[in-house]
Design brief:
alpha+beta; about 325 residues; eight-stranded antiparallel sheet; about 25% strand; single chain; 13 strands
Length: about 325
């Protein structure tokens, strides 16, 4: 979509939204026809439950993964909404992407439906990721009836599985027994301690008696597409970015009865683990590229083409 108004952002068509609903296996009760019906659902009394359902079903269907940097002929990340729709939705190969891919797709979906949404940048904590000094993460902020919520479908196993209101120290259950909260505070690196420079710090803990772990922090400042283009270029090319030399693919698991996220399956390098209710189970250990490609399809539903499979040859991330 081309526009002369720089504040406008791309949206998807009614046909595309139907394909998206199918891609994430969204139940009919949550499927709202694009237009006045979807705008009413996105702004009315059930808007929060609608948003939460979209987040859960995308998390359970679209994996957090960086396979494009390893299993592709070009090793380049494209975060244009139309390209992401083709890659994740239309191809039907079980693909997802890393934060800026999944959250860009999700933000475009929300905007198309009529949600009041914009995107912001986040800085990942050093406790979660080495060399995390730069803002390298993307989230979406949605306003429903004057309350702002942040939503994230691109952080993997420790990311939020429901919309979280921008309210200090409100604890909620994430994937049991994990709980999460937002802490409106400064981070240790801040030189200014002024009250008008507080950050929202997303924190998690895996037990009620465990300490809170800072996951990432953000402000409510809107980031523009060109900001994310620069961030994504660094994340996908820098030698200090672990995305460039380690392979990851995580898909959240949903209980079909309760429609709640209950765990995840994660491939990291040469190990695949399944986690339910905080208990991890090793599924397999990978010893060759052929085994990893088969495991991606068996456990995570990701199908790689022959051209994608050979793209990893000669790279440091190749299993030899």
């Amino acid at each position: 979509m081309s526009t002369s108004d720089p504040s406008e952002r791309p949206t998807y068509t009614a046909e595309q939204m139907t394909k998206y609903y199918d891609c994430i296996s969204l139940p009919s009760k949550y499927r709202h026809e694009l237009g006045s019906k979807s705008r009413e659902a996105a702004t009315g009394k059930d808007a929060l439950s609608f948003l939460a359902a979209l987040q859960r079903y995308q998390l359970a269907s679209v994996p957090f993964e960086n396979l494009e940097l390893h299993y592709s002929p070009h090793h380049i990340i494209n975060i244009e909404p139309e390209y992401l729709f083709h890659k994740i939705v239309e191809r039907g190969t079980g693909r997802g992407g890393y934060c800026m891919e999944n959250n860009c797709l999700f933000g475009t979906v929300l905007r198309s439906l009529g949600f009041d949404v914009y995107s912001a940048g986040a800085r990942v904590s050093g406790s979660m990721q080495p060399q995390a000094e730069l803002k390298s993460h993307m989230i979406n902020i949605v306003t429903i009836q004057s309350q702002r919520y942040f939503v994230d479908v691109g952080f993997g196993a420790s990311g939020p599985t429901h919309p979280i209101p921008l309210i200090h120290d409100r604890v909620s259950v994430n994937v049991p027994p994990q709980t999460v909260r937002l802490n409106h505070t400064h981070i240790p690196d801040n030189t200014s301690r002024d009250s008008d420079k507080l950050l929202w710090v997303y924190e998690h803990r895996n037990a009620d008696d465990a300490p809170w772990t800072p996951t990432y922090c953000f402000t409510e400042t809107e980031f523009l597409p060109m900001d994310f283009a620069v961030m994504s270029h660094h994340t996908s090319t820098s030698k200090t970015s672990w995305f460039t030399y380690k392979v990851i693919c995580t898909k959240m698991l949903m209980d079909s009865g309760t429609e709640q996220i209950v765990g995840d399956v994660t491939l990291f390098e040469t190990a695949i683990k399944k986690r339910i209710a905080g208990k991890a189970e090793a599924l397999t250990t990978i010893t060759s590229e052929e085994e990893r490609v088969r495991a991606l399809e068996k456990y995570l539903g990701v199908k790689l083409s022959e051209a994608e499979r050979t793209g990893i040859q000669g790279m440091a991330s190749e299993v030899k």
